[in-house]
């Protein structure tokens, strides 16, 4: 979708401006430049136009239509007035300290305009033009000038290549929607203009709570996700941030920001470009690359981001997180329904989402029975059956009882609530409307969040809006209601986690540069040891005699392996011998030497790595990658030769604490084997977690890491043995 | 939800009726009794009432309101008229051959009423009363009488314990909805009354194509899913059947019926009670048990049933399958979008659903470029970008081009279609409306199905309804549109499968009764061999001498195992020795004998099983269970001691052909190892598939099977070795 054409006719050109040194945009009223950018109290339109087909006209029209109460300054050298707003003939003539300039001029003019804006103290700009880095070589010069102008002017920008932004709280429509969506607690950041339309329509479909800021970020040449979530979370008007992202210019920076912001403000994210095909599609769109899907999913969750997999759940889940109380972790969900099928489906969906069901006490069940009569199910799900036909108030009665049961964390009401007057006849309406009002009062009084499904929600009965005004969301889909309940639980659990502080990541001291390419295993082990990772008993040897000496020293049968940066698969080239004793040592060393000589080309530069034989146990994988988006990421899962086929691996942004490593272990299938499954010994998972944490700390101190595989790590009752270590530098 | 109260006041009682011998309800106009039941051309209401709170009044009111054009016969001994319809004072006074009696009387009267209906030639009845088998012991007597009355009367019934049925084609509302949903191609069978309301509302939300029959099946004491899908699929008015099921009284019967019906009529199913908690909830509702979820998912798909996991996808997917053409299998999906974000999300969702993307030819791309101009992406996804702003017709232009590309199986249009007049201004409207009309003509002319997403679909613009009238569905959710596209592909693939005919399953000949409990392995192997399963080289031996002789005969080192119905875990009790030679045979046999004597209580009744040692290979699991719902089901997956932890198993209702077993193998993770992964030899999967098929055939001939585990089956380049066989009878 193209949102109108830019002002690229020469007659509307902004006159040349003098270059000046950049200076930081001053704050106004204690607000930072970004604060002013996202909530403009004055707007200049640079490239204003009297032509209704132009964005420079549409934005003025949209601002007036939306009822924007602050100053509007159209800028056009031709002067006059547009839509009765007097036109300023140049940027230089703008009053001091305008909050936002919307720049509706083509790419090649943007840099100069920014510099002139900076000179007038303009805090921020929305840059619509495309033709920058997303055009590759063609846009390179424009991008270079833009970057220089950002530094020189100090003006903060959203864009370029954006469809604009919208602040519903101050009625600032810089996009030009035909009708402004309602003001409310959800802010939206997106890389796609069409996703702005989708969230606005999705909010309309569920009569959702509305929006504070909605911004298309475009190329994120300046303000990006990481910085803006901080700015938004500090706004009273924003209670949740919904993000559509096709990638991060600085993934690690986003993780750090999310980890802080999510403590106080929910972040809900839908990612595009998760599949290889989708990534290609996204590339053609914005020029940034999404990280590998599984890694991104893990590390974003780790830092408190609520992820949704479906585009139709982004807005509903954000609406719920923005308005609902949080459940107590450790307490379960009660389904309060007026029909068996809906209740069954809700319970199934809750179970699929991994949410616990409340186990209601006998006392609670007896109290429910007194309200509902003999015909109703008072277990969980509760089916109010015929009682609800009699009076809609039964839901509030039940909820008051449930809120006093210590097993209840959240109540999911599902079925026909509020619509008996539609299903049966109008005589139900007054009681239903009154019941909704009472439910709002009940929700205020209790700490248990209420989430409603009604199969009649699309009919939008007034009593549903009564609930919504009382911060109780009502959804037409059981699945969406459960997705919302699940998001509330997962957020509550994340907030309750106490992993302790991981060691500082990016400290300038104690960092190690990894040489390029594969390292000899002995070097890899020394690097890890130097950074605090226990690599067990082993020796490096240089010849048959020192191999023999090493085995003698270790005092038990050993594995002897070739130790070289030239050998990738040691076993495949006769480079591994097991059960080697003092007696067979020389012979084995010679065999390895001969094997190396027999390679094409011969491997000359090698030594031997000697380590005691390890008794059998569970074969695990511990490793790390340097993710192009998110930086060092530690891996744990099923190990051994079948590591790829097993497809059983958990990821965390490094470093992590042992407590966090315990959670990581629990995510994998192989964790079942660590608990003494069948013939396996029970493994000391605390020791394993400490090992994973030490690896995560080590890799976060490596510069030039490409990847680290410790595979297998053999875990048995008494030890964690890293059997083979492979470290590769960039 | 209770749908009004039944007529249980004594004054309205139906007078006693004489018992008579049952006789099958005659057909009328070539229609069977079930044909007449689902499309009644005359309706009697037994228990009609003049009280507006009673179902016996509401149904008459609903029939009149809906515009039911056939005869209505209220039955009540008090006579008179209800809503201007003359009341018949007894069933005996009904005219001959009434199609359907709605029985609005309590449980204890139903049996007598059915018998009297049978005497008057009534074809079918809808029985609303509850209090039968779903009440357990309390309802046992009523259930017994009901079953006897069904036999005696020959009347076919829906229910009892149902909220009724609705035939929109003949405007017969036997439920009493305030407004009849539109007549259309989707029929619905459900065990939940509330799910009737949900599908009706969901159809309303998407302006869906409407309904033929909607029936709540209740207890399915007579007509159930299996029979009704046959009846419905024979109706011209029904083009797809949507089912909400919480279990099957006769799962195998349903599979057989589905396998036939799905050839011509799509069946879409949402299951309730899939989780343990949901099963409990479902139990309290209808009294039937869902099969284990994974088994049910596999065998229903095997027989052509389209499964949906979300309640909000049942109706949309059924609407699409009822109206859309099917894609050619082997051709891919094209995403035709007017914005990058939507296109990326669609591609991601398609990828997640496992659907292929079309690889458009250079010629196609050049033709698209000619239409769309330089600014558009003409790969896949196609982004029409600014072109669409210019003229909405661009979509039809592109689709005509795409339909001629042999790589295109389906076109998913996504973005803002039909709503530029909402997003921008009304001036777009005439062109958009015309574009929709042209698209309908294009869809008629081409064999490539079109599926539309528009983020403005909830606004219900007229041009979307134009598309729908042309059998093109438009969805507000990208995810739902992709779920629909996926269902079309999977159905096309199922129809295209050629597995050949599996051997007859339930033949009375060549069946084997499995004794109860664990069988000695030698017996298990003989049973399987007798049914055509190759169990390899092995011998049963009775003492040390015959063990020695067996090994000598086999001519290589052997495994010697205890062979007894008393030993469950042979290894745990010293019952397995490996690498036994002629020399060590006697010693090993004695050791096993001593181990057995040392058990508590001592194992006396045992022999020896001797089999050659098997070289290493991939450890597989082949087995079978006798599913309580679906009967014999064959299993294949990862084997070995970790079989449970691996959680890698595929299921099929037995018997299957080798071709179908190949599909089963491909579903598992372990299949990656069969293709020569790393150090593993490539396995002859055709031979493996033949083995699985032979097991499936064997287990389908067993009576009294509880379970069969052949684990491990060791597969290497040259052979499939069943190493351990465990057969358990009920």
From TrEMBL, chains A, B:
<dbReference type="GO" id="GO:0016740">
    <property type="term" value="F:transferase activity"/>
</dbReference>
<dbReference type="InterPro" id="IPR032875">
    <property type="entry name" value="Succ_CoA_lig_flav_dom"/>
</dbReference>
<dbReference type="GO" id="GO:0016874">
    <property type="term" value="F:ligase activity"/>
</dbReference>
<dbReference type="Pfam" id="PF13549">
    <property type="entry name" value="ATP-grasp_5"/>
</dbReference>
<feature type="domain" description="CoA-binding">
    <location>
        <begin position="37"/>
        <end position="132"/>
    </location>
</feature>
<dbReference type="GO" id="GO:0005524">
    <property type="term" value="F:ATP binding"/>
</dbReference>
<keyword id="KW-0816">Tricarboxylic acid cycle</keyword>
<protein>
    <submittedName>
        <fullName>Acetyltransferase</fullName>
    </submittedName>
</protein>
<dbReference type="InterPro" id="IPR013815">
    <property type="entry name" value="ATP_grasp_subdomain_1"/>
</dbReference>
<keyword id="KW-0547">Nucleotide-binding</keyword>
<dbReference type="InterPro" id="IPR036291">
    <property type="entry name" value="NAD(P)-bd_dom_sf"/>
</dbReference>
<dbReference type="InterPro" id="IPR003781">
    <property type="entry name" value="CoA-bd"/>
</dbReference>
<keyword id="KW-0067">ATP-binding</keyword>
<dbReference type="InterPro" id="IPR016102">
    <property type="entry name" value="Succinyl-CoA_synth-like"/>
</dbReference>
<keyword id="KW-0808">Transferase</keyword>
<dbReference type="Pfam" id="PF13607">
    <property type="entry name" value="Succ_CoA_lig"/>
</dbReference>
<keyword id="KW-0436">Ligase</keyword>
<dbReference type="Pfam" id="PF13380">
    <property type="entry name" value="CoA_binding_2"/>
</dbReference>
<dbReference type="GO" id="GO:0006099">
    <property type="term" value="P:tricarboxylic acid cycle"/>
</dbReference>
<dbReference type="InterPro" id="IPR051538">
    <property type="entry name" value="Acyl-CoA_Synth/Transferase"/>
</dbReference>
